[in-house]
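Preliminary data (for renewal application), pyridoxine-5'-phosphate complex.
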Amino acid sequence: MNPIYLGVNVDHVATLRQARGKVAYPSPAQAAWLAESAGADGITVHLREDRRHIQDSDVKLLAQTIITRLNFEMAVTKEMVDFALEIKPAYCCFVPEKREELTTEGGLDVIKHFDTIKKYTERLQLNHIQVSLFVDADSNQIQAAKKTGAKLIELHTGPYAEASLDKNKDKNKSQDQELTKIQAAAKLANQLGLIVNAGHGLSYENVAAIANIPELYELNIGHAIVAQALFDGFEKAVSKMKQIMLDARK
Ligand code: PXP
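Predicted structure:
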């Protein structure tokens, strides 16, 4: 089977720092360095418009110091596109931040915002930044993503992750239904020639079935790893996740 890569999202290291206002610790850049030494294939950050966790200075420092590749998640705005062009990450992933940019499940509404997304995608790709669109496992959104000219999509695994937390007796049924949707979406996107990533809500408990989808290229995982790192340390938390993913591909 193809390899599968792990992008470690360090946003929630910054969440912990921002909880205390002016302190400089813990450092997302230090977490990124440890993640890379433990086998992370990329580092992901989301610079939110309200700067609630990651700050502009974090992104600039990461862009200069990481040795893998930076996946910069951002809203579909001119401000963010201009910032991305300044720091030149390997990847930009457009994500929804406002309610009107969301589909019902929570991915980007590419159909509704097609012209803007296409314009910014072209601008970034002309500057050698690969663009990914965070979308639901929905064939119409995936077809629209392809038409923007973006080379990648990231499938929203949130509904699958939510179903995996459901403690009622239909838990497995809804989780299986969400998994089936992601499998079909990954297959379609792959047939359209897109590189297919996935992420959101993935954990040590639910990641194996997703990692086992052969068309998936990279999983972006943050919250579960940062939480586990409190007890195990960052390197162990990352390598444990990577190992589960690799084992699922055997
Ligand atoms: N992928 C995207 C597009 C996201 O917005 C997020 C959350 O910031 C993640 C992946 C990582 O999600 P989690 O922190 O739940 O692992």
